[in-house]
Every structure is written in C-alpha cells, then in structure tokens.
Design a protein that fits this description.
The chain is mainly beta. Helix content is 0%, strand content 46%. The chain is globular, with a radius of gyration of 14 Å.
Length: 128
C-alpha cells in the first residue's frame, strides 16, 4: 500500500521560517513525481511547489513569491519544503502528494488532480 506522510508543521512568527518534510512507503521513491499543496480556511487546495522524480524540473505556485524551495533526496526517501519570510496568509494545512513518474515539465502536472497519493496534512500557522 502506497503511503506518504508529511511532518514539520507548527507555529512561526511573521517573517520566520518553517521546514516541512515528507516520506513515502510502499513505493519506489525515485519513480514518483511529488509536490506540496496547501489549503487555507475557506480556500481551495492550491499548488505550492512540485518536483520531478530526478529533480530535473520544478514548479512554484504564485503563493510562493520566491520565498519557498522544494527539494528531494531519493536516497533518503525524503521530500522537503523550505519556507522563508512567512506571512499570516501562509497559514494553511500543507499536504504532500505523489504519483508515479510524470514528464519532466512539472508545470504541466502540478495541480491537485495531477497526483494520486496524499498525506493527511500538517498545520502551518503564522499569527497576525
């Protein structure tokens, strides 16, 4: 059974940083494209960033505003999201997602419908 689990959420003050991690089981990790998505109260789920199986292609959603970095380490079976200069608007549940290898151009598939396996989410909170 394929499972992905994210961690690293918490409360951070405005302007601070938060680093999220995700790992997978029941899959060959380096065969899967992966991404980070988030859902704020009253908002639809949106793409934060996606990365191809060998890190050849990345895509960042508009909400990142050049503040976020997605990366992966297939040897360690880990996906990461580094978030900097956080704002109250970044408060959301952050989800890790995966799907067996997509084409390299991450922008073409980085959407909620583009990935099949989802974690339960981890809460990131930035108070105003």
């Amino acid at each position: 059974e394929v499972q992905v689990v994210e961690s690293g959420g918490g409360l951070v003050q405005p302007g601070g940083s938060l680093n999220l991690s995700c790992t997978g089981s029941g899959l060959n990790f380096d065969d899967y494209a992966m991404g980070w998505f988030r859902q704020a109260p009253g908002k639809e789920r949106e793409a934060v960033a996606c990365i191809s199986w060998a890190s050849k292609s990345t895509y960042y959603g508009a909400a990142s505003k050049s503040r976020f970095t997605i990366s992966r380490d297939n040897t360690k079976r880990m996906l990461y999201l580094q978030m900097r200069t956080l704002e109250p608007e970044d408060t959301a549940i952050y989800f890790c997602a995966a799907e067996q290898t997509h084409p390299d151009r991450a922008a073409s598939w980085c959407a909620p419908s583009g990935l099949d396996y989802w974690g339960q989410g981890t809460q990131g909170t930035v108070p105003s």
